[in-house]
Design goal:
This protein has 764 residues and is α/β, with parallel strands linked by helices. The chain is built from 26 helices and 32 strands. The protein has 3 domains: 3-136 and 373-472 and 476-551, Rossmann fold; 152-360 and 560-591, Dimethylsulfoxide Reductase, domain 2, CATH 3.40.228; 612-744, Barwin-like endoglucanases. It has a 7-stranded mixed beta sheet with strand order 6-17-18-19-4-5-32. The protein has a 6-stranded mixed barrel with strand order 24-28-25-27-26-31. Bound molecules: ligand MGD (2 copies) and molybdenum atom. The site of one ligand MGD has 34 residues, from loops. Residues 619-738 form the Molybdopterin dinucleotide-binding domain.
Amino acid sequence: MHHTLSHWGLYEVVQDVDGPRLVASAKDPDPSPIGLDQLSPTVTRLRVKRPAVRRSFLEGRRTEGHLRGKEPFVEVEWDEAIALVASELERVIGRHGNSAIFGGSYGWSSAGRFHHAQGQIHRFLNCIGGYVRHRDSYSHAAANVVLPHIVAPLDTLMAQHTSWDQLAEHCELFVGFGGVPLKNAQVTAGGAMRHHVREGLEAMRRAGTRFILIGPLRADLDVGGPFEWIQIRPNTDTALMLGLMHCMLKSGRHDSGFLDRYCVGFDTVSTYLTGRADGVVKDAEWAAGITGVAADRIETLATEIVSSRTMMNVAWSLQRARHGEQPYWALITLAAMIGQIGTPGGGFGVGYGAVNSVGTSKLRMTGPTFPQLANAVSDFIPVARIADLLSKPGQSFSYNGNVYRYPDIKLVYWAGGNPFHHHQDLNTLAAAWAMPEAVIVHEQYWNPVARMADIVLPATTTLERNDLGYAGREGHLVAMKKVAEPHAQARDDYDIFAQLAARMNVGPAFTEGRDETGWLQWLYAEAVAQARKLGMALPSFEEFWDAGLIDLGDMPEPPVMLGEFRADPKAHALPTPSGKIELFSATVAGFGYQDCPGHAVWLEPDEWLGAAQAARFPLHLISNQPSRRLHSQLDHAAYSVDGKVAGREVARINPADAARRGISGGDVIRLWNDRGSCLAAAAIDDGVMPGVVVLPTGAWYDPDRSLEVPLEKHGNPNVLTLDRGTSSLAQGSSAQTCLVEVERFEGGSAVTAFDLPEIQARAS
Ligand SMILES: Nc1nc2c(c(=O)[nH]1)N[C@H]1C(S)=C(S)[C@@H](COP(=O)(O)OP(=O)(O)OC[C@H]3O[C@@H](n4cnc5c(=O)[nH]c(N)nc54)[C@H](O)[C@@H]3O)O[C@H]1N2
Ligand SMILES: Nc1nc2c(c(=O)[nH]1)N[C@H]1C(S)=C(S)[C@@H](COP(=O)(O)OP(=O)(O)OC[C@H]3O[C@@H](n4cnc5c(=O)[nH]c(N)nc54)[C@H](O)[C@@H]3O)O[C@H]1N2
Ligand SMILES: [Mo]
């Protein structure tokens, strides 16, 4: 049996008369349909077939970066493309040094531990002297940076999450800020195996757990039965948590014993809660005024939370907003006051449902990685500062207690990510993107990032190469066998970099003399060594490859997050300065940031429903993760297209907000603010709270360039979103902080299927 692993899951490869086809794996109780279309003709139609170069770039006019995305491409032979890329790299390194190359190249690319585009490009650039890199992720930058100051790195916590079966046994009340969206649990970076979140939630409900969803969208929770939905104004969860804390403090129901033994800094927090610090009492009335949640419901909720075994979870989206560090810090403070951290079924969670792997009982093994070697360049950016990097060379920025400068980037090299999907305020990014002298992209499809490049090199897909599949906490090693020949002239990222490396005289450093099989055996040997340390003997590579799949099994004991710390806080001290949970952090306070002080506080975001700006832009835009694809990947596949109306993404809006604007279901609507505008198809939905409009990410960026102010035609919300760091601490993405207005669009409604770019014959 052939298997293929993708971020969306394990699929079986069936050989039909007319070629291979993917079907859901029989091993998966709740498979995701997202990956099934990978081999379909509609998907293949938009493949990049041959190396291609933007016309004026090929003619040597490098200064015309503003023509990126607006000019036809000319196809060239591979040899010429490799020579051109090598000479661009050599030219830039020779004149400006390696810190003029941005190779951050953020993105999910494809599953597989060897052909992982990130690892490939970073290793190659390190072989030629280094590159400017990125730090953290769009997913959870604010949490990544703040959590080590408070409790432990996010990765450590994610690996420890109390398992779903423990929750079913012990959890009485589950409170989900932003829910546990099943749409998101379809994926795990590197490959979801057994989709278990639905059965996890349903088992909890059957065992009697009560669920409360706190958020703007009812669809963020589905437990197969009833639950309570508390609507909250987006970006105000911190105020609600502070209000809950005040209720507990006022009535003395907080757990002083836990706070003394396991935490530092509660005194500072309590002077803030009572208003002694700033004259503002953070009581239920105060929180109600900010959040829109009724004061008496806040009071009763505080009682329910302290008097039950309560698990409180935050979605990652809460920290993808201005001051996104705060809801995480506040949640941990609230959980500490209740004193249930480290108990099975109680405490806090930082991402149940964000991906499938959170809450498994599978063995914890890191898994083998393709070595990236050392980077000789020390410059970096916090990942979401890309537009600032390109447009503000020499300018300084703060990050986690230090000040750094943006280097002057002349060449951008991207493989395995789509910045014209992931970045905010795309009109500003497009202007910044015009500034470097060269943009090189490896892509599988003629998607927006390929179109915005000077040189596009066609990359193979997972199905066109052999690989080793593994994702931490999914517990399986998968032999990902090639099922199709490369499309047209597509090549593996590895082969492209190996050819470039050879041409630039670093061939052996890059390949170490190994081909694909050599590297797969090398990676497998790594896995064998890791498993041995955990007391497991894995079979030989040949046996593994024949078997197709190895199940590493479960942990000896089901995990309980911070259970060891609770049992013995000295022997299992946390990696914080005090070894305890830092409700107040002297380190963070010492940074002196107005926008991220030393303990959890309510700070108004730049844009929210309580802001003055809401008079002009009265709707809060939630641009959440799409249910029918992964980011921008496979946006043109049938499953994604079936979720659209006439090629446009669907924006959901509350009936009252729609009626006020004369909008009916299926209407073409325009969403806009001072940063941009896009079209979408309206869906009227009472599962969206009033004052909110939901437009998921992922529609391929397609601005109408004939207009002076670009109008994006497919419904890409990132032409509207705010490009500002979460705070001086983490500088994460603030995508969820965004106000807009919406109207019916009367300007015609031509269907807007995404097509191939113009490819011209070479002028001889
Ligand atoms: N408004 C808003 N914006 C957001 C978010 C949000 O919530 N709201 N979420 C953010 C988050 S959390 C994330 S993680 C980012 C995701 O942003 P990205 O990870 O950049 O998005 P993807 O569409 O997954 O891009 C992956 C690209 O890699 C290509 N690719 C796949 N496999 C290969 C390969 O083997 N080789 C090569 N060369 N290319 C390959 C795919 O074709 C695709 O173009 O988006 C962020 N943007
Ligand atoms: N199908 C699918 N699954 C995915 C992805 C995908 O692209 N497609 N992307 C993956 C990636 S890279 C990541 S990082 C994770 C992201 O995981 P998350 O960041 O958690 O995902 P989102 O869908 O952005 O947000 C979850 C829900 O939070 C709610 N929400 C937004 N803002 C607020 C707020 O201020 N307060 C409250 N209470 N709720 C709010 C929204 O209604 C939203 O539906 O998802 C992963 N899973
Ligand atoms: Mo993400």
